[in-house]
Each structure stands twice: as C-alpha cells, then as structure tokens.
Amino acid sequence: MADDEDQLAENAFETLVSITDKSGNLRKDLKQDILQSVSTIRKVFAKMKTQLENKCKENKKTKRRV
Fold first, then answer.
1. Which of 2, 10, 23, 56 falls 20 to 30 Å from 45 in CA-CA distance?
2. Measured between alpha carbons, how far apart are the two ends of the chain, in Å?
C-alpha cells in the first residue's frame, strides 16, 4: 500500500515538472520556483519516509522485548 502512495506522489511531482516543460507562457522564474519546490518536497517526503520506517523498526523491537 505504501508503494501505491509513493507512486501517486511521484506521478503528481512528474505532472508538475512536465507542466513547466510544456507551458511556453510560464515565466522562467516561476518555472524555477516550481522545480525547486518539487525538489524540496521530494526530499522532505524521503526524509519523513525514512523516519517513519525507523520508528516502525523501533516499535517492533519494543514489542519483541515486551
């Protein structure tokens, strides 16, 4: 299920990136802002996913101890 959400998020990011490529009327500064924002959000999602996985591992270890 997590893979489905990962794919949905990635598809949304790719849509935003492709809009910047397709739109001839988009100002260069706005295009750069969109691309930078997508990059930042991708990094944040990756960090959050890693943190969540680590917390899940910690929870499993704690449950085993109990």
1. 23
2. 28
Running DSSP on this structure, what letter comes out for residue 27?
-
Longest dimension (CA), the chain: 61
Neighbouring CB atoms inside 10 A of 55's CB total: 10
* Sign of the torsion formed by the C-alpha atoms of 3, 7, 9 and 10: positive
The identity of residue 10, as a single letter, is: E
Going by C-beta distance under 8 Å and a sequence separation of 6 or more, which residues neighbour residue 38? 13, 16, 17
